[in-house]
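In this section we turn from sequence analysis to structure. A common task in structural bioinformatics is to predict how a protein folds when a small molecule is present, because the ligand can shape the pocket around it. The inputs are simple: the amino acid sequence and a SMILES string for the ligand, here zinc ion. Study the lines below before reading on.
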Amino acid sequence: MRNKWLARLGLLALLAGGFPAPPAAASLPGDARTIVEALVACGTRHSLSSWTNTKRGIGCGRDVVVRHLEAVEKDSGKRMRVVIDRFETRAPRTRNVPVPMENVYAILPGTDPARERTAFVVSGHYDSMPSDVMDAVTDAPGADDDASGTAVSILAARALAPKPARATLVFAAVAGEEQGLLGAKRLLEWLTKQGYTVGGMITCDIVGATNGSPDRRVRVFSEGGPDGIDSPGRQMARLGEEIAGKDKVRLVFRLDRFGRGGDHRPFVEAGLPAVRFTEPLETTEARWSVAKTVETPPAGAPAAAPGAAPFPSSLSLEETLSSVLLGTSTDNHYFAARSVGKNGKKSIAVPAVAAVRRPPGYVASEAPRPATPPTPAATVPK
Ligand SMILES: [Zn+2]
């Protein structure tokens, strides 16, 4: 199983391929596979596992990250600075009990005094989980989710450390993602307290596999703005496509994969430009309680731009009928249900909203995070 996951790391090369990286310093150890293998060797990196056991648990994962980033720091002549941010947090997925957490950041200060308080952030989460999000004991190697994204953060730090930018660059590996994006929320708080404005944030989460997909483009998820039209994050996604090329990037105009969450979310909710990178295809089957009919866009609707997300599809609902959309990733499409009267008249389509997933032991006293209603009108490419 472990080798299977490790074999899927080819996409890291794809990610790296889109950007002209300066040569890495020779004394820095480790490629993506080395970093991921070291993280996997911690057995589990569940955020509620041990922070002090150096061989197994989340503390072991932190040590791997710190070791690699400190090597970059050393080679940068300490121009890059490694920060271990220890904090306490609580959430339904900590059973509402305060627990310790640690994020690791590598800060490369900007060279332009006018821009050094603007931070551009690359982040991955180094925690992991087995099937049960509250199980801190069972093995949870998390090679793809998200040792792969953690490796991107470390490798990006290594590639860019020799070439400081005018603005500040922050390479982050955060904990607590699986417990409710706790590390990312803290990262945003920390940056704000340090006086930074976030110029842009990319979370790399599940970026190590292609799962046999012939389409090898990295998917970049970006949410629309509060006016339902556009957002700084979506503009950032477009810029990424412009730089890397349409053959490397697939833009998906929604916050995240269907019914899932990522570390860019707290940044997006704060109105900041933030996007998620993820691999081209996940293996989860697309299951829907709907009929097979997929309607085409209405006459006169704008055509989807090449490489952009498709026009929202609508699906006719038939009671109690369950069907599987083979070969279709729900992540990349928009769904809505319509009722059809005996006279053939159709209702207005109601956008599908993913069910809120709740952890075992969920305590209702803390309000659940509301599902973000999809905004199909905002997703039509202009
Ligand atoms: Zn993840």
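Residues 1-28, 284-320, 366-382 have pLDDT under 50 and may be disordered. As an exercise, try to locate the residues that line the zinc ion site and compare them with your own expectations.
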